[in-house]
Design goal:
- This protein is an alpha+beta fold.
- The protein folds into 3 domains: 6-121, Sufe protein. Chain: A (Alpha-Beta Complex), CATH 3.90.1010.10; 129-207, Orthogonal Bundle (Arc Repressor Mutant, subunit A), CATH 1.10.10; 215-290, GMP Synthetase, Chain A, domain 3.
- It has helices at residues 6-13, 63-76, 81-84, 89-95, 104-121, 144-154, 159-166, 176-189, 215-235, 264-279, and strands at residues 26-32, 37-45, 52-60, 135-137, 142-143, 238-246, 249-256, 284-287.
- A 3-stranded antiparallel β-sheet has the order 1-2-3. Strands 6-7-8 form a 3-stranded mixed β-sheet.
- β6 and β7 form a beta hairpin.
- α4 crosses α5, α6 (144-154) crosses α8 (176-189) and α9 (215-235) packs across α10.
- The longest helix is centred in the C-terminal third of the chain and has 21 residues, at 215-235.
- It is globular.
- The chain starts with 5 loop residues before the first helix and ends in a 16-residue tail after the last strand.
- Residues 203-209 and 295-303 have low confidence and may be disordered.
Length: 303
Amino acid sequence: MWDYSDKVKDHFFNPKNAGAVVDANAIGEVGSISCGDALRLTLKVNDDTEVIEDAGFQTFGCGSAIASSSVLTEIIKGLTLDEALKVTNQDIASELDGLPPEKMHCSVMGREALQAAVANYRGEEWKDDHEEGALICKCFAIDAVMIEEMVWANKLRTVEDVTNFTKAGGGCAACHEDIEAILEKVLKERGETFDPLAAPVEKVEVVAEKKPLTNLQRIKKIEEVLNSFRPQLMADGGDVELVEVVDKTAYVNLTGACNGCQMSAMTIAGIQQRLMEVMGEFIKVVPASQMPKLVTIGEATHA
């Protein structure tokens, strides 16, 4: 699986500035829960100096998204808005000692949330800086201008690079030909030749195919991961329990102080991310309250 730096792990397991800033006067929201990642960045800006006095984040997404959001808030506190706008997605990744290529889009999301928050403070309408471009990836609503910007800024060379940085092409793959056309155009402007067989920006380790887990093995691993989370949750007066496992969906209950906590979605996302890393397969973690009712044979029905 992905190789995360110690800084990424630290910001994931011990996020800084999590939650909304009280009396925030700048708010930036990007992403979509339906697409898998969403970030809400809140800032407290000094009206006289435009210095960012406080920053907080609420992220729905993977561990890299949480870590990127956390480190972004640490970077920008104490900067003026103009100084903060100079922070790039590469700055965010560098501060984390790097991100796996497949997770670079998380740093891009942080940069865009910052731009949106600054625009909100200044009474401007933020349009992603790429809303006017032709829609290329319908799965993730990514347009041509954003792809071009990422190719230029990060020296991308392949469709795989573009997917890693923007998610474009990571769904049905119907847009790969259009992405190749953009790459060919930008690389020509850079004085380079587009090679569809070129290696991506960073070499990605190929993981040998593993035998699928049995359901019993899956349940045991889920319990092991939940046990690793319990000390942190119990320290805050909460806990987590496994209710049911159906195929590759684990239904859990957050109890005590964790039940109804504003960070509960982040906790569940963190559990899901850890499970995928440990198990080497996709698994979904869902609150038990969303578990469909199982109807047994012979159960009486009433109108």
